[in-house]
């Protein structure tokens, strides 16, 4: 198994891509810390992993709170003895996030708190553990919108994901000499509740986004997590500071 005996913290693992990641990591032999704010979702992921023969432990986590981030890492070390992977997956995309000209400051701050501060805090407490071990993999979920503009903007989300890319590069340079690799994945639109609940309410928005994708469909969560499994595994031991754009070809399509 590709992740045998590795300990992985996955934030936002109570639903969507995070839950799929927890299941796929566990199937590859990882011991998974399910870091999730929603208790029902987090405990359900823990149960699904256990039912499939894997090992997982849930901890209620608000990634935007420093105390929760510290407790999340401490929980991993206490329960499983180490931290090999930090998978910063948790993120929000509120409907009220629009252009800078009409987005409320409270919405902007909320998005930055989860999408950017959450990554910062997870890294703040997980990376020192990895440095002590002499190895580790940080996987940050950014987005394809971090590298191109959008005529239908969600500017807080876009800015937060662009900052995650920049932070990832800085982490790669700082901690690569200590055996800690940092990489980012930039997914295109993925069929998760976060996106689909919104697009199902707005058929025009759905068709607009599909028209710009050469594959003619949204991505599947496992198509992103497959890349994360590679980054978590020893197969990627010389992959550091990379950004994997997995979007069906949206970012190369000009018309």
Summarize the structure.
The protein has 255 residues and is α/β, with parallel strands linked by helices.
Fold topology:
Blueprint: E1 7-11, H1 16-27, E2 31-36, H2 39-51, E3 55-60, H3 66-80, E4 85-88, H4 105-133, E5 136-141, H5 155-175, E6 180-187, H6 193-199, H7 203-211, H8 221-232, E7 243-246
Parallel strand pairs: 1-2, 1-4, 2-3, 4-5, 5-6, 6-7
Helix pairs in contact: 1-2, 1-8, 3-4, 4-5
What key attributes describe this structure?
255 residues, alpha/beta, Rossmann fold, 7-stranded parallel β-sheet, 7 strands, 46% helix
Describe this structure in words.
It is a single chain. The model has no long low-confidence stretch (mean pLDDT 94). By secondary structure, the chain is α/β, with parallel strands linked by helices. It is built from eight helices and seven strands; from the N terminus they run E-H-E-H-E-H-E-H-E-H-E-H-H-H-E. It has helices at residues 16-27, 39-51, 66-80, 105-133, 155-175, 193-199, 203-211, 221-232, and strands spanning 7-11, 31-36, 55-60, 85-88, 136-141, 180-187, 243-246. Helix 1 packs across helix 8 (221-232), helix 3 (66-80) runs parallel beside helix 4 and helix 4 packs parallel to helix 5 (155-175). The protein has a seven-stranded parallel sheet, with helices on both faces. Strand 5 (136-141), helix 5 (155-175) and strand 6 (180-187) form a beta-alpha-beta unit. It is globular and about 50 Å long. It has a single domain (7-190, 220-245), classed as NAD(P)-binding Rossmann-like Domain (Rossmann fold), CATH 3.40.50.
């Amino acid at each position: 198994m590709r992740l045998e005996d590795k300990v992985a913290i996955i934030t936002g693992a109570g639903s969507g891509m995070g839950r799929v990641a927890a299941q796929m990591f566990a199937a590859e032999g990882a011991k998974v810390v399910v870091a999730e704010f929603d208790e029902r979702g987090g405990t359900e992921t823990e149960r699904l992993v256990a039912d499939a023969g894997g090992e997982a432990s849930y901890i209620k986590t608000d990634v935007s709170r420093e105390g929760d981030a510290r407790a999340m890492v401490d929980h991993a070390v206490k329960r499983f003895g180490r931290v090999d992977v930090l998978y910063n997956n948790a993120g929000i995309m509120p409907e009220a996030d629009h252009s800078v000209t009409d987005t409320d400051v409270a919405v902007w701050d909320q998005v930055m708190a989860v999408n950017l501060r959450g990554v910062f805090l997870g890294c703040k407490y997980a990376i020192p553990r990895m440095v002590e071990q002499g190895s580790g993999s940080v996987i940050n979920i950014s987005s394809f919108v971090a590298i191109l503009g959008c005529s239908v903007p969600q500017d807080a989300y876009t800015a937060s994901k662009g900052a995650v890319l920049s932070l990832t590069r800085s982490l790669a340079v700082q901690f690569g000499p200590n055996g800690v690799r940092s990489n980012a994945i930039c997914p295109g639109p993925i069929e998760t509740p976060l996106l689909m609940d919104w697009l199902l309410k707005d058929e025009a928005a759905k068709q607009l986004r599909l028209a710009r994708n050469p594959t003619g469909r949204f991505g599947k969560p496992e198509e992103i997590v497959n890349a994360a499994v590679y980054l978590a595994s020893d197969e990627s031991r010389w992959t550091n500071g990379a950004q994997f754009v997995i979007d069906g070809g949206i970012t190369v399509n000009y018309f």
